[in-house]
Amino acid sequence: MLSEKTISACTGFGSLIVNDGKLRTTGFEFQAIYHGSAGKKFTYDLDLNLSHFKSVLKEMADPGYLQESGPARSYVGGEIGEFWVIKTDGIFQNQGEVDQWNKCHGYTDENGDWRAMQNLAKPGDIRFIDQNGDGKLDSNDKVKVGSGVPKVVLGLNVNLAYGPFDLVANFYGNFGVKRYNYTKYQLQRMDQVFNYGKDALNAWTPENRDTNVPRAVQGDPNKNGRVSDRFVENGDYLTLNNLQIGYNLPANICKKLKIGSARIYVAGTRLFTITGYDGYDPSTGSTYNNTDDTSFMGVDYAIYPLSRTYMIGVKFGF
After folding, report:
1. Contact present, 85 and 232 (Cβ < 8 Å)
2. What does DSSP assign to residue 86?
3. Taking 50 as the threshold, does the pLDDT of residue 145 lie above it?
4. Residue 97: phi, psi to the nearest 5?
5. Predicted local distance difference test score (pLDDT) of residue 284
6. How far apart are the first and last CA of the chain?
């Protein structure tokens, strides 16, 4: 058996001045290449690439700078792509649970009156967690639940050849990443009168309590659709991005056809994806654009999924 292997790695960092501030990006890239053969007919090439990077907002003209849009939060000292959301604790199953919750969670106003934290909640609504204990639900109760930027990006190229046959495959994946499924929010919100997703059929009712979909109520008085961990999902995935299988015509046949070479192949793109993500496609949902034209990684803003394609081809050489 003949073999050859190459391993390389590099690290780097850089700083960028942006909007009167400084953004620092650090990361590394690792590549391993292996060329081998078994016998006279079988050869193979394996190329593995791993990369990681993170960007941290190091400085701003305003040291207390804080920007939020949906689940994304940017602040001095924080990484770009962080998700900050309100935590949930299930669904109220009856009015007694609602009353007990609001008896224990709220605050006393300046007039000495008790203000329940979820005073508009009813059975079937989401129970939200007051993280700082001030009896109110606001941005101060959000907690960091991950990032839309993957910790590791993987690429794997496989090239196999056996006699006249060859196979080329490319795998691509993201790991250590979260997705904010804004599409799920749109399909489950049920606060207005228009079409929703099939999950709406599983909405909470007194007869259907074993569900994580809150009740259907116009206007959403309890704000069940607010930014919360309901819509944060594991965005890890591995996809077979490209696959091509070919056959090279023997030289004697090519000679009879008066051509130098000929290859017949079948190919496909995005043939399968391994993921636990509940949205259409974890490889989309990379950015979210709000009204201020700022972008955030990892928000699946109802982006149309990438399509699967199949091809058959013939390549001639003269």
Report:
1. yes
2. B
3. yes
4. -65, -40
5. 74
6. 33
- 109 secondary structure, DSSP code: -
The torsion angles phi and psi of 285, rounded to 5 degrees, stand at 65, 40
Contact (CB, 8 A) for 198 and 105: no
Which is it for the CA torsion 259, 260, 264, 265, positive or negative?
negative
How many residues are there in the chain?
318
Q: Give the list of residues 6+ apart from residue 3 with CB closer than 8 angstroms, or none.
A: 34, 35, 36, 37
Render 47-82 in DSSP notation, one character per residue. Answer: EEEEEEEEEEEEEESSTT-EEEETTEEEETTPBTTE
Largest CA-CA distance found in the chain, in angstroms, rounded? 99
| Closest to 4 in 3D by CA, of 27, 42, 32 | 32
Q: 291 pLDDT band (50/70/90 cuts)?
A: very low
Q: How far apart are CA 310 and CA 243, in angstroms?
A: 10
Enter the pTM of the model.
0.85
Residue type (1 letter), 158: V
d(CA 158, CA 166) in angstroms, rounded, equals 10
